[in-house]
Design a protein that fits this description.
With about 230 residues, the chain is of the alpha/beta class. It has a single domain, classed as P-loop containing nucleotide triphosphate hydrolases (Rossmann fold, 3-Layer(aba) Sandwich), CATH 3.40.50.300. About 30% of the residues lie in helices and about 30% in strands. A six-stranded mixed β-sheet has the order 6-7-8-3-9-10, with helices on both faces. Strand 7, helix 6 and strand 8 form a beta-alpha-beta unit. The chain is globular and about 55 Å long.
């Protein structure tokens, strides 16, 4: 599903000494199989989110090779990357990123405006996903009336609208209390059992429980711990 080969990332800056490059990580090699529930751990600033953004084609400024479903991201144009994201990748973020003036169902079907799915089909699938998330009764509710856990379930439903094979999750339980966070993690575990590939970054060791694999970024290198 995902293959990283000799992946390197640096940030550049200018100071009195000229152009300086700060390494984030170097020579990362990683294979992620279909159905894996992989947790990437590391302290804040270790490069976890940078790694996730590269996997999702959101960051193209790196050295090395990234393969997603046998496609090299370096060989794809901007439109090709957009098509790959809309058809095969779902994103879930810590901050939910819901549109507050849209109802829950409108937020869920938002990806249909950028994909190939019709509005009628999108709404039906959106309602099915809300039902799966236990949120059907909230379909016409605005996000501001929901709890944090409910908003995250709406965000997961939105990420699943186009039936992606790969879910990239950036601290998805970071704004949730432990009990609600565990319920959200159960959703991701269930999706993994259905054959979806879930890649999640976190600095919280409790989140890694139930993952099929755990890797850690430390001092710019990647180590597998489970």
């Amino acid at each position: 599903m995902v293959r990283l080969k000799k992946l390197q990332k640096t940030y550049g800056s200018h100071n009195k000494r000229g152009h300086q490059k700060t390494p984030v990580f170097a020579n990362i090699n990683l294979d992620i199989k279909k159905g894996d529930f992989l947790v990437i751990m590391g302290r804040s600033g270790a490069g976890k989110t940078s790694l996730l953004n590269i996997m999702g084609g959101l960051d193209t400024d790196y050295d090395g090779n990234v393969m997603i479903m046998d496609k090299s991201l370096k060989n794809l144009s901007e439109s090709g990357l957009s098509r790959l994201r809309s058809q095969h990748i779902g994103f879930v973020f810590q901050a939910f990123h819901l549109i507050n003036t849209f109802t829950c169902i409108q937020n869920v079907i938002l990806p249909a405006f950028f994909g190939d799915i019709s509005m009628d089909k999108a709404r039906k699938r959106g309602m099915d996903l809300l039902t799966d998330m236990g949120m059907k009764q909230k379909a016409d509710t605005l996000p501001s009336a929901l709890s944090a856990g409910e908003r995250q379930r709406i965000a997961i439903a939105r990420a699943m609208l186009n039936d992606p094979q790969l879910l990239l999750c950036d601290e998805p339980t970071g704004n949730l209390d432990p009990e609600t966070g565990n319920k959200v993690l159960d959703i991701f575990r269930g999706l993994s059992k259905q054959g979806k590939t879930v890649v999640m970054v976190t600095h919280n060791p409790d989140v890694s429980r139930g993952a099929s694999r755990i890797v850690r970024i430390e001092d710019g290198t990647l180590m597998e711990t489970k």
